[in-house]
Structures are given as C-alpha cells and as structure tokens.
Amino acid sequence: MTIEWKFPHNGFGQVRGVSDAGIETFTGTEIQSLAREICQNSLDAAVEGSNATIKVDFEQYRIPSSDIPGYEQYASKIQKAYDYWSKKNSEKTVKVLTKALNAIKKPTTVVLRISDFNTTGLSHPYEDSDEGWNALTKLDGGATKTGDKAGAFGIGKNAPFTNSDYRLVFYRTLNEDQETAAQGMSRFISFPEDLSNSMNTMTTGIGYYGNPEGNLPVDSISELEKLYQRSEIGTDVFVYGFNAGHEWNSDVINEVLENFLMSIHKNLLSVTVDNKTIDNSTLARYLSTYNTKIKNAYWYYQVLVRPETKVFKKDFHGMGTLKLSILVDPSEKLNEKSNPPAMLGRME
Fold first, then answer.
1. Helices marked H in the chain — which ranges?
2. Which of 159, 199, 251, 305 could serve as a FRET partner for 85 with CA atoms 20 to 30 Å apart?
3. Residues 168 and 272 grouped into a single domain
4. Residue 288 lies in a domain
5. Is the pTM value of this prediction over 0.85?
6. Which range has the top average pLDDT, 217-221, 295-299, 310-314?
7. What is the mean pLDDT of residues 53-79?
8. Domain containing residue 322
9. Residue 184: inside a domain, yes or no?
10. What local confidence, expressed as pLDDT, does residue 340 receive?
11. Exposure letters 14-40 (e unless 16+ CB within 10 A, then b)
C-alpha cells in the first residue's frame, strides 16, 4: 500500500487562512492547553468497570528532520503554500509560513510523544463512524462524548497543533478490538498544488498522511515505531516540530497539578513527564516543590488531607450530596480566592 501525504482539493469552496479559530483559541497557553486537554480526554476514555489508574506519559525526542514521516513531501507542501501566499497581501500569513519553512528545513526537530494506558484506545479507525478515530481526525463540530470517549474531541483536539511549528501531529492507537491504526494530520492553510492553476488545485488546508484512498489510517508507520512501540491498549499523540521550549516539562507538571488534583489524589490518574511521575504517592512532594506557581492546588490538597478540615454535607434536591470542606488556619496565608478559609466543594 502507498503511504503518502494528501491534501484534498476544496472544490472551488472555502479557502482556509492561517488564523484558524480552533487553533488561535490556545494562543498564549499552548503547552498548558495541550496538557489539560490530553489528560482530560484520557480520563474520559477509561475502561468501563475498570479500577485501573489511567496513565499518561509525556516524553520528548530530538530526531533528524528527515525522520518525519513523509518529510520531503510535507516540506514541499509548505513551500507551495509559501510560494502562493507570499504574493498575497497578508503579512501575518507570510510570517507564519516563513517560520514553518525555516523550521522544517533545520537538520533536526523535536517530537513530543504523549501516550495513555488503561484506556479504550480509538475505535472504528477504518469505518465511516462519528465516534473514535473519525471524531478525532475528520469530524468538526459534531463530536459527542459517547462510546470510546477519547474520540469525542471538541475544540480541544486543536491543542496539539498549536504546539507544532508546522502544525503537524501523528496519531496511533491499539484499541479494545486489537486493531492498530496510525495516521498523520496537518491542520495547515489552503494552498494550490499547482501554482499555475490555483483555482482548480486549491486545497482545503487539512492534510493526511496514510492511505490516500479515502484518507484512511494505516496499521503502522515505521517512523513512529522507531520512536516508541506500543504493546498495550491506548492512544499515542506525536507532536512534530514541538516548540514549547526548555521549560515545557515544568509547565506540564504545573498544569497537571492545578487541574487534576482530585483525580491524582483518588488514584484515578498518574502522569509521567520527562521521567517524573506524579501519582497518589508523590503528589504531596510535587505540590510542595511547585507550590509557588500552583497555590490553588497546594491549598486544596491541604483541605483534603489536614485533620482540622471541617466537612459539611447536604442533599442537593435528590440529585446527590454536596460536600463542602473548609480549612481555617490563621497561621497560614491561605488562598485569597476563598477568603478567609481555603475551601473545596464537590458533588458526591
């Protein structure tokens, strides 16, 4: 089977610009949004009836740029986009394309791999379905959180692309039916395949690397296997041209602690970032280490574990029990958002 890049033509329809609303949403909080969206999707993909802890791994690699799947072909697509848009009156577009072109021409690139375990994986990778694989790669604005919930990506599925200099992400899964699937995706910008015939060859700006017949995934992509071989059910996301910088690991840890405190505390989630594992047994240590940047999470954790915390419960119109935990400590500078005490409330 031929594996290649394919950017479908737009059929004289809408031309996609560089300011994609779904991607621009995460501008300024790129790596934080990535960490938050990925971990939430993995939690949503828990195996029904299983008590196993969801595990999410973040690992970075530096590789030769030539090891990007379909490298020469993809670089040529960026060049075509630059050649077309550089003749237009769009300073921002040219700036983005210049950055992408310079980045992909560098001898090496950075890849961020995010993998989850004890999840369902993505279902129906080779079928016409609005769940699972297609909800992630092809369905915009219609995904619902049913079935294997990791496939029910809304606007959050754009977060990985904001972390790539050339908006390039690869997905891979091993699902509960023991199906394997892998595919690259670019949420880029419209460009003509033939500059001399731009109207007839204008693309949608979204491209796929895999089986060009139907823009379907393939069972494996050798370059992904070279980075990491999956043997357990779950999903991998590979962000090529990863651009978050040297502090990416600290940013991810901060975001995980701030947003997934309860899940980690209750042993529902474990996250490993650059060989640092945040789980139920290490949570207190990481909260203490990072507490200058995550005051909310640090004090909410104190509410959970300190013996002087007061707990109040009340039935909420028969829909469940509201539980409010309050910690008052005059000797500490508690979270001012919950002035004067630190409070944590939830429905049980």
1. 21-24, 30-44, 71-85, 91-104, 133-137, 159-162, 198-201, 222-227, 248-259, 261-265, 283-289, 295-305
2. 159
3. yes
4. no
5. yes
6. 217-221
7. 98
8. 305-347
9. yes
10. 47
11. eebebebebbeebeeebbbbbbbbbbb
